[in-house]
Amino acid sequence: MSSTTEVCFNSNCKDTSEKWRRGWRRRTGEYAHLCDRCASAYEDGKFCETFHMNASGWRCCESCGKQIHCGCIVSFHMFVLLDAGGIECLTCAKKSYILTPNPAWPPPLHFLPSQPERMKDLSMKTWNAIAGSGPVPWRQAPSLFNGSSIQANDQLKVPFEVDVSGGIDRYGLCERLSMASPEIKQERSYERLANGKLRLGLPETLQNGNIGLNVKEQHCPFTSDFKPIYPRNDTSSNLSLGIASSSKNEIDDAPVSAILSQLPSVPISLGKQVCSQSGMDSSGEGQIRNGKSRGDGRSRNQLLPRYRPQITDEELQQISGDSKSVITPLFEKMLSASDAGRIGRLVLPKKCAEAYFPTINHPEGLPLKVQDLKGKEWVFQFRFWPNNNSRMYVLEGITPCIQSMQLQAGDVVTFSRLEPEGKLIMGGRKASAVPSLDQGEEVNVIGSEASSPGDASARSKCTDVISVNGHMKEKILEDKPVMHVKRKNSNLNAKSKRLRIENEDMMELKLTYKEAQRLIRAPAKIVPSSFVVDGCEFEEFEETEPVIGRPTLLGIDHSGEKIQWVQCEDCFKWRKVPANALVPSKWTCSDNGWDLHRSMCSSAEELTNEQLEEMLPAMNRGPCNKEESSGWDADLCVAVEGLDTLANLAIEGEGEGLVGSSENRTKHPRHRRGCTCIVCLQPPSGKGIKHRQSCECVVCTSLKCRFRTLMERREKKQVDKETEPPPSSSENLQGQLLLEKEQDVDACVGSDTANRSLNEEEAPNSGHLEEPNARKLSSSPLKGQIDLNIQPEREEDFSPRSDCGAVKCSLPGSADRFFRQQHRSFDSDAMENLLGKQDGVGCVNIISCVALDKKSG
DNA sequence: CTGTAGCATGGGT
DNA sequence: GACCCATGCTACA
After folding, report:
1. Of A194, A231, A387, A508, which sees the most CB atoms within 10 A?
2. Cβ-based neighbour number of residue A302 at 10 Å
3. Beta carbon of A135 within 7 Å of strand B?
4. Burial of A388 (0-12, 13-18, 19+ CB in 10 A)
5. Model pTM?
6. pLDDT, tens digit, for every residue of A533-576?
7. Is the CB of A349 under 7 A from strand B?
8. How many CB atoms lie within 10 A of CB A617?
9. Nucleotides in chain B near protein beta carbons (<7 Å)
């Protein structure tokens, strides 16, 4: 290539040539003009070997050992920086996952005009000033050295400017550098990088500058087990160190490797938070990854930590696929209740919206195409509402997308951009999937304890374990007493948190309350004793606790002896076991120690189909005859998968309220050690026990009486209704809902003693329906059930109250009063758990306790 | 009556 | 005290 330049750009070159060719691209955007010989060497990849052999900065490929002149612009594209430290030649890198070489430098226009001045300015500024200074190029690549004289380590007179993306700057290096005198700064930074003792502790001022140590970033950058957040192929964003030389300003690019090459082989991987501190906060750009800064001058102020993208390797891989597109994680947001609600409006963080989404001047906004991780394209309406002289940006129509990603409140949506296409990518992350500390709790490690590389594992562990989930974090605090964990910037407000917690509980409890009703029983041969507290009789099992067992069918043997039928979990055959046998929740034929002939699944079933059918309707009666037929009814079949959960809880002692230790339970005034009464067993989550079926305590007796009255009234009313014209559609709906609730209540109340007794004694017509449908047509919507939530005097109080799929069994006023009276010792939380959560828990509790307001009873 | 759109409010930062 | 933003409120279809 011809050129007007008469001198070869290679200062080491003494040749003159008539033929000029293009070499590497200079920072100015022009290309180095090389003589033919130098150009050939360059094109052959032998430039550095030829001219730079005496220069420092040679490093070996970690894989093949090939020497590469790192830190030289000429060889810049021939290697990649490894996350764990070291370099790899491009050939090896391509073999091992890394897809692209160090990206090119950004176009010249992204550099600030006068580099030395810029550096000078920066050296005088604190981090805060930098952070708030608006757009800052994604990397400072000041003039450094030319290819012929790489003596940066000796000639540095201007400090390193560390513009690492959320990595090193978070360790305070940036500020420390800028605060110190150039020489000292260089030395310090060098030392820190070299000895791997970047301090994690940050002064408060740094936090004010939004330099918070995020636990997610506490992976030690100096250990090989560092787990990069971003793909390793984007090493340019990982670290950007610039070394300015006072002697030569117009020299070409000084890549990261130039610095690294001057350093010992310190593994540095600092590019996790591309869009965060220096990426987002300092520049407001978040464009570091792709080396482009946005040309527009919109607001790029600091972004709250909770919006920093915490995108994972997997996600990025998923987004990018095998393409060489560069992904720019923009921001993420934890879905609030309203975001995830039906309205389908995602409130966008203002700064994010303004920074990364198109400028909109009208509230109507514009449609925005967003692609999800599966490649499906969605079109949302990106718009804003005027709000207090400001704007509130929303993304409308996200519901289908959210649902498609199966996200809910508390989960996180991430926004990235695919370059160079500029495509917006929306991803989702379940709250439990990857800890997103910034979303919920940001954890700052204060002090030097956690700063050494040796703490890396601990920090990693923290990262792994800490989640937005509060209690998990508490665990961490216990595990890591040396760390001061500071919560801040909870993105979930109380309501959202509650929502999420309740959702979680709901999932669990929806299973458990049904299961519990069938599975919790008194231990064998244990007759509960009872005592009265404040006029209410409580039942307790001395020195023992209720157990969780597998549902069984009670029957009578040929000899007239009472037996149980239990179904094998594997082969589903029914096996006969003694009536007093306590069958574990996971029971298979091989556990059948009572009948060795049928201790294998291959053994024939003793029960004939006819016999089984005879018994199964009883199961369909569900709660009515639970003791006699506590088998697999529809509800239970649905819930059967939750058996394991429940059983595991019990086994692991997590279900303290069921079978675990009595510690940490609510205690009543007469509590004494070992007390296992229903109050003491009352777990916060509502996995309470129930009275035994044979219980004839005052409470149960009263309950039976009360239910009898209720049943009589309802039957009477039903008869009246049947004589009336068919109800309207809305009434039908209500009736249906009522029946649905009834079914849930079945499960809830199902096995209660009073229930059973009542069904046997007082409501003989109920609970003998052959099919569920028949039951629906039954004259009594509450046949065979006791609903403590229903006041006999307010029998119309059957309106559905559940909106979550689980029954909301709020207490009637009288029961509520009673409970509050009887459980004065409950703390507010326990009370809330007991009464406030409308998820069926209360139902279990109430039924379990069979606490009856005697006034109404 | 229900669902939605747009704005207002107020707690939190 | 300003700003952000989650969500409540209300008018409207």
Report:
1. A231
2. 18
3. no
4. exposed
5. 0.31
6. 444 444 454 445 445 566 677 778 778 888 888 888 788 888 88
7. no
8. 16
9. 4-13
